[in-house]
Design brief:
Layout lengths: L1 H26 L1 H16 L1 H12 L3 H28 L2 H8 L4 H37 L11 H8 L8 H28 L1
Helix pairs in contact: 1-2, 1-4, 1-6, 2-4, 3-4, 4-6, 5-6, 6-7, 6-8, 7-8
Amino acid sequence: MTVRATGASVLIAVVVGLAIGVLAGFFGGWIDVFLMRVVDVLLAIPLLLALAIVTALGFGLVPMAVAVAVALVPQFARTTRAQVVQVKGQAYVEAARTGGASWGRVLWKHILPNSWGPVAVLAVLDFGTAVLVISSLSFLGFGAPPPAAEWGTLISNGRNFLITSPWLSLLPGLFVGLVVFSLNHIARTIEEVQR
């Protein structure tokens, strides 16, 4: 359940963050100013906002995925915007426009493919962040009801048996840590390959 909620939250955050970042970076002007102010508000209170969303929508997989996605969207939006602005000023983009390519073609053929690298690294890193946040929310009791196995719920339920059976909390906790460290290593590897 934790992996599904994490995948859904990162997918939502990537799609929404890419859309906001591309709109802000590509069009600029008042659209950029408005969208970046909205992103700044979301960036100011991410975890508190996630808790408020989960409390408002109720417990379960979908509310947790939406809450974590809302907390992750600002990072994707800001990273995408920065990349789009940088690529938009490159000589090959200006050459394509001078050669008669429409803005839509320039966006799809030149700007988006060349802006994707740092966003992919951020997606892998934020997958680890989402695992931690979703595990924390389910540890606090905001996760799916008991028949569903979530790592945070397993750690929380094992707290009652720490004296007699410490592995009930230790093993899920170690697994969460290993997943996050593995994702960080994968993200660093992707970043080094892109250089």
